[in-house]
Every structure is written in structure tokens, then in C-alpha cells.
Write a structure and sequence with these properties.
By secondary structure, the chain is α/β, with parallel strands linked by helices. It is 36% helix and 14% strand. It is built from 26 helices and 22 strands. The strands form 5 sheets. A 7-stranded parallel sheet has the order 1-3-2-4-5-6-7, sandwiched between helices. It has a 7-stranded mixed sheet with strand order 11-10-12-16-18-21-22, with helices on both faces. The relative contact order is 0.11.
């Protein structure tokens, strides 16, 4: 994305333009209105909306427009209600772009006899997504040739999920009724002013709602507020969504009941058909529409159903039951079907600038019938896009391996001793020893040590290693350092110990920068077909998606003399720092109430936690069982010492045989046995071999084993071991933003 300031992007909006927009724009930041404003803003940054401004907009500006329209009516005719169009833009649109859109549309709507009100709200997702797609994110390390799965992983683990949650929270916050302390959402002030005006001026206006992309999320919270209170509106004339990014469950919990009962008279969706959705591209990097990225990378669960995706709509029986009652309610483009159902948009970001789409919307708002009579409306003035995720390049084909090429062997070794508060002594030595072993087996080895081993660097290196691999390649990733557990922020961990996620500790973990099992699962899900990935993790809590030890249990563990545990526990402040980095900030009652509303209407997310799934692309060998502690002694990890001994003597073992052999030579004084997490066929393959090689099946039929074939094998499998966890990613695209 170009490094362009907000002021520069809005520089062509003159003070006179901004002053005129005060009659048509409700601007909120974090869901709230401003305390003060100026009648003639000198710049975009100076543009503000107060509660008094909103009330003035309805009581004076709208009222004056209605009076003008009544005067235009033929003498003796009963004036028709004046249409009021309330527009919400997408989530990748900043303040300047939102004001430019309002400036571009306002004169056109008014020429056609419609009074427009634009909800302009701010989101940081645009910059975050651009950084992810360009490979920058928070570090300097770039990616290799990214597959769509790798883009999805990057979008999730490098900040997209947090900013999407923030955006949803801001939209819900804008629509919150006043709390006990008087704090009120800015759009709720608008809803109250409209209800009051319409009660006092029966039949003077009719309300129409439209939103592009994430604007549908905003309106899912806003429209229900129009029906609250003693002065509730009788009905909303129409709701029209363009490429909506709202979840199907949110839509069905908020707007669909209003449409089914006739309180929303007409509800329609304009979006691309599945073929064009998958032909779209985001920034020339992601080879699908941005809605797929929302579904697979930004939402809480994998493949969350999104209203604007045709393939998701087909599985939404209740929604399709409503839309199917009238063919005009679902417009899958590009298509020209009558005068009210036309769109030529072929990218996610094009709908709000496509002439056919906007003219169809205007005809619906103005009640123009599907007929061949001459066009009486002023044609929508198309323009170039203000907002785009740069650089926009032609979409590339999905990278593919070259069959017959010599398989490559790629290794990444990570060791961290230099933790500021609780240093270790053998992790760097472990990484060096693993590196030598890998080199001896023909691997190209990359190493990350101590201060360099931050969360961002580690995750980007892992994703880079995985996304660089091609069919037939072998990838090995080793980690030695602290492990811990953190509060589960997704609601996908509900074991007997309480909601928590496993975590590896980068060197900067006490600032909240932890690597949870969900992060790793996102990366493992990006493993290309035909690539063999082996993971050797010498730390606590590296083997399962379930919490193995509580604080008190860890404190009661017997640590042999001379040994040191590779496990640490976060204090309350560090857990708060973790939450702040990973999830929408809930720092005050207003934001907590908004987030409660978001979660309340995401019913599929809350219905039941997703079932953890077995590893199907990677093999993970962990240093210990989930209820044990990984130890180091004599300058190395106990697991690493045993593992490299076995690897040096018997490199041709299967993974199951390897784990058994490692377990057999670990001293019984150490209450530590390695754990294998792998799909059945992968567990029986020979160590560090290409998937092109013939498998070596050995051992019992089991996905997880402690190496001794004991009853613990059954228990461990029941605990569902796998670092991959729930990586909620998905595919996506679109040149513009939700």
C-alpha cells in the first residue's frame, strides 16, 4: 500500500466541501461521536460530528430537503414520502476515503430526489492487510512465492484477526444505546433522531439502507435500533447489501427476522457468483475475493459462512428460503436482469463504483419499475478507486512443484536461552546440535537464536520455510525454549482444565508476543501438497491443543537435581498484554458491551466449539506428554540428547519407532516421555524422508503415542494431541476492502 497520509488522500476536499458534508455525514471513531466540531473544517482531520450535529442534520437539514421536495410535487397531489438513504462503507475505508465517497455520491442522490446520510467509520484493517499482502507486517523479512493458504496464515497470525475484531466491535459500539454512565453510540443517536422525526412527521420520509462489504456488519447492528422504543419506526422500505462481508449467522439473528415479518419491506443482496468470486484477486497476491480471506483468516472459526459468498449462501437454508421467494432479492453478477437487478462488478471492491449496480440501487430506492420506459434518473458518475490494497498486480497461478525434480531438504532451527526473567542454558546448544544433524542428512539449515527469536521473526520464518517448499521437498523445524499456556480467546479450547491455548515462548513473550497452537496450525494448514514436514519441539506444552498443567500442578512437580524445566507461567499483567495483542481491547464498559453484542449474534461461533482435528500434513514429535515437564540438564534438553542419539545410530527408523527408542533411553529419573502427533500413515513413514519415497509402515494403528505402547497411548489420543489446533483460515480476494 502506498505510504500516503490521510490528509494527502483527502487533500482535494476543500473546506467548502467538508462544510457541505456536515449535512450528510455521521462520523464516528471507536463507535463514538466527537465532543466538539467546527462548522467549516479546514481539513479531513478537523472534520467531526457531535450529537448536536446529528440532531441538527435530521431536524433542520433533512426537514429542509423534505420541504423542497414537497414544493416540487404537482399541485393537488399528495406528496410521496421522500426517500432517505443511509449508507455504510466498507471496513478498509479510512476517514478520508469515506468522506470522498460521501462527497462523490451526495450530489447524485440529491439530484434524484433522495436525501443521503453517510456513516463514516474508521478502521485500521486497511493498513494491516496491505502489510500482510506485501509481506512486510511488523518485521523486515519478506515471503517467498505465497500460496493462498500461506496468505491466509499470514493474514491471521500477523494481525488481521485482531483488526477484524476491532472493526466489528466499532460497528456494534456505534449502535449501542446509552449505558448507565451516559455513553452512547454515534449511530444510535442518529437512529433516535430519525425515530423522533418520523413519529412527528408521519409519512414524510421512508428509510432505505445500503452498505458495501463490512457496511453490512454495521447495518446489522444499526437497523434493529430503528425498531426499538415507543417511537419505533413502522418499517424500513429497503435494505440492499453490496458484496456483504457480514456473517450469515449475524444476518439471520438481526436482519432476517425483520425481513421475514415485513418490517423490512424489501431486502436484496448484490454479489458476484462463485466463479467470479474465485477469479477475483486481492492485491495481486491472493487469488480469490477478499470475502474468502474474511471467512478463512479473519473470523473466529474456519470457513465461517459469509453472506456475500454464493457457495455459503447455498448452505444457508433459512436465508435462501427468504431470498428465493423473489428472484430480485439475490443478484449474482455480473448480470443484466431487468433494470433493477444489474451489476457488472467483477471484483469485491468494484460494487460501490459500478454504474449498473448503483443505478439498480437507485431504481429500487425510488421505486422505478422494471420497464422499457426512458431512463429518468441522473446516471451515476463513475470514478477511479480511492482505496486499493497495493500493489495490484495480475493474479498469479498457484505455485506448483516440478515433478521429477530433485527433492530439497530445508530446515529451520530455533533456540532461545536469553529470556530476560527466566533464562535457560541448553536451548541454543540444542538448536546447534540439531542443525549439525540436519546438515549431515543433507538439509539446508537456517538458524534463529536468542534476541533474534521474536514472535514475528519465528512465525514468518516458519511460514516462509513452508510456503517455499514444493512437491517432494522435506522440511524440518526444530524449537527449543520455554512453553506455557495462555487464556483461550477463541472459545475453541474447552477441556477439563479450563479454556486455554498451548503456547511457545519467543524471546519477547512477556510483552504478550506468544505463539499459540492456533498460530502454528494456521501455518501447518498452508503446507503445500506433497511436502513432508517434521517438527521437533523441545519445550513444555508443545504437543496438544489441551492444557496439560495448571500453575499449582506445575509448582508441585518434582524436578531432579541439576535439571531445569522448560516451562514458565504468565502473571496477570502478562496475560493482559497477551489479550491486548491478540484480541479487540475491552478496556471499558462501552467496549465490553459492544463486544458482548458481537458475540451474541454470532450464533454459529457460540453453538459449540469446533472439534479438534488430527494432523494431516505434519509430523510433530514433542519433548513430553501434556501433563509432564520438558527438562534440560548438562547443557542440553533431555529430549534433544536422547533424540539425537537415536537419530545418529538409527536414521532409518519410522517416526513411531523413533519415539519409542527415544523414550526407552531417557533416564527413568526424568518424568518425561516424548509424544508423537501424526496422521496414521505419516507416523509410519521413515524419518525425514520425502513423500515420494515408499512409506515404511511400522507399529500399531494410532495417531498419537508416548513411545511405549502403554495405556497412556489411548489416554493421549483422547486428549487430542496436535499443535496444529484450529487455524481459522480461509480463502479470499477483492481489490477493495470490507
Amino acid at each position: 500500500m502506498a505510504d500516503t497520509t490521510t490528509a494527502a488522500r483527502g487533500a482535494d476536499l476543500r473546506p467548502a466541501d467538508l462544510a457541505a458534508l456536515r449535512k450528510h455525514v455521521v462520523h464516528t471513531a471507536d463507535g463514538k461521536l466527537d465532543a466538539t466540531s467546527t462548522a467549516r473544517p479546514a481539513s479531513v482531520d478537523a472534520f467531526a460530528t457531535t450529537a448536536d450535529d446529528v440532531r441538527r442534520m435530521i431536524e433542520q437539514d433533512l426537514a429542509a430537503f423534505v420541504e423542497q421536495q414537497v414544493k416540487k410535487a404537482p399541485a393537488g397531489d399528495v406528496p410521496a414520502p421522500v426517500p432517505v438513504l443511509i449508507w455504510a462503507h466498507g471496513g478498509l475505508t479510512d476517514k478520508a476515503a469515506g468522506l470522498r465517497t460521501a462527497h462523490h455520491q451526495t450530489a447524485w442522490w440529491k439530484k434524484n430526489g433522495v436525501y443521503p446520510i453517510h456513516l463514516v467509520w474508521e478502521s485500521g484493517l486497511m493498513t494491516t492487510l496491505a502489510d500482510v499482502l506485501s509481506g512486510r507486517a511488523t518485521g523486515s523479512r519478506g515471503f517467498t512465492d505465497l500460496t493462498d493458504r500461506a496468505v491466509e496464515a499470514a493474514a491471521r497470525i500477523l494481525g488481521g484477526r485482531k483488526f477484524w475484531d476491532d472493526m466489528k466491535l466499532d460497528s456494534a459500539a456505534a449502535c449501542l444505546p446509552a449505558l448507565a454512565d451516559g455513553t452512547q453510540g454515534g449511530a444510535d443517536v442518529l437512529a433516535a433522531a430519525l425515530r423522533e422525526y418520523m413519529t412527528a412527521n408521519q409519512g414524510a420520509v421512508e428509510l432505505h439502507i445500503a452498505g458495501h462489504s463490512a457496511g453490512s456488519i454495521y447495518h446489522s447492528h444499526f437497523v434493529p435500533r430503528l425498531f426499538d422504543g415507543d417511537d419505533a419506526v413502522d418499517h424500513v422500505a429497503s435494505v440492499t447489501f453490496l458484496a456483504p462481508a457480514v456473517r450469515v449467522d449475524t444476518f439471520e439473528a438481526t436482519l432476517l427476522p425483520l425481513a421475514e415479518t415485513g418490517r423490512i419491506k424489501d431486502l436484496a443482496i448484490f454479489t458476484m457468483d462463485e466463479t467470479h468470486e474465485k477469479r477475483d484477486n486481492t492485491g495481486g497476491v491472493y487469488r480469490k475475493s477478499l470475502l474468502y480471506l474474511v471467512s478463512r483468516a479473519f473470523e473466529a472459526e474456519r470457513d465461517a459462512k459469509i453472506l456475500g459468498l454464493e457457495e455459503h449462501l447455498r448452505r444457508a437454508g433459512r436465508t435462501m428460503g427468504y431470498l428465493g421467494d423473489d428472484p430480485a432479492r439475490l443478484v449474482l453478477g455480473p448480470v443484466a436482469r431487468g433494470r433493477r437487478s444489474r451489476t457488472q462488478a467483477t471484483s469485491h471492491g468494484a460494487f460501490d463504483n459500478d454504474v449498473e449496480t448503483m443505478m439498480s440501487l437507485a431504481r429500487r430506492v425510488l421505486g422505478v419499475p422494471d420497464s422499457d420506459e426512458p431512463e429518468r434518473l441522473t446516471v451515476f458518475p463513475s470514478r477511479g478507486r480511492d482505496v486499493a490494497v497495493e500493489p495490484v498486480r495480475p493474479p498469479r497461478p498457484e505455485p506448483a512443484g516440478v515433478r521429477g525434480a530433485t527433492p530439497r531438504k530445508l530446515a529451520l532451527c530455533i533456540g532461545i536461552d536469553a529470556y530476560p526473567k527466566d533464562p535457560l542454558n541448553g536451548c541454543v546448544a540444542d538448536a546447534e546440535a540439531w542443525g549439525e544433524a540436519f546438515r549431515g542428512a543433507g538439509f539446508e539449515v537456517e538458524s534463529i537464536r536468542n534476541a533474534d527469536a521474536t514472535r514475528d521473526v519465528i512465525l514468518r520464518a516458519m511460514l516462509d520455510k513452508v510456503s517455499a517448499a514444493r512437491d517432494g521437498d522435506v522440511v524440518a523445524i526444530q524449537f527449543a525454549g520455554h512453553g506455557t499456556f495462555v487464556p483461550d480467546l477463541d472459545g475453541d479450547e474447552t477441556d477439563a482444565f479450563g479454556p486455554s491455548d498451548e503456547a511457545l515462548c519467543p524471546v519477547d513473550f512477556r510483552d504478550g508476543s506468544l505463539i499459540v497452537d492456533d498460530d502454528l496450525g494456521a501455518i501447518w494448514d498452508a503446507i503445500p501438497d506433497g511436502v513432508a514436514v517434521s517438527l521437533f519441539f523441545d519445550s513444555c506444552h508443545s504437543g496438544t491443543v489441551n492444557r496439560g498443567l495448571t500453575r499449582s500442578q506445575f509448582a508441585q512437580k518434582r524436578i531432579p537435581a541439576g535439571a531445569k524445566p522448560r516451562m514458565t507461567v504468565l502473571d496477570a499483567a502478562e496475560e493482559d498484554a497477551y489479550r491486548a495483542q491478540r484480541a479487540a481491547a475491552l478496556s471499558d464498559p462501552f467496549r465490553r458491551a459492544a463486544w458482548a453484542r458481537v458475540v451474541q449474534v454470532e450464533t454459529d461461533r457460540a453453538a459449540e466449539p469446533p472439534t479438534p482435528h488430527e494432523a494431516n500434513r505434519e509430523v510433530l514429535v514433542s519433548a513430553c506428554q501434556p501433563d509432564q515437564v520438558a527438562l534440560e540438564t548438562n547443557g542440553h534438553g533431555v529430549f534433544t540428547t536422547a533424540a539425537l542419539t537415536v537419530l545418529g545410530k538409527s536414521p532409518d527408523l519410522s517416526y513411531r519407532e523413533f519415539v519409542r527408542a527415544v523414550s526407552d533411553i531417557i533416564d527413568d529419573d526424568y518424568e518425561q516421555r516424548p509424544l508423537l502427533s501424526a496422521a496414521e500413515d505419516l507416523g509410519g513413514r521413515a524419518l525425514l524422508t520425502s513423500l515420494r519415497d515408499a512409506p515404511t509402515i511400522a507399529g500399531p494403528k494410532a495417531a498419537h503415542t508416548d513411545g511405549r505402547g502403554s495405556a497412556a497411548e489411548v489416554r493421549t489420543a483422547a486428549i487430542v494431541a496436535i499443535l496444529r489446533a484450529t487455524a481459522d483460515l480461509l480463502e479470499a480476494g477483492g481489490a477493495d476492502a470490507p
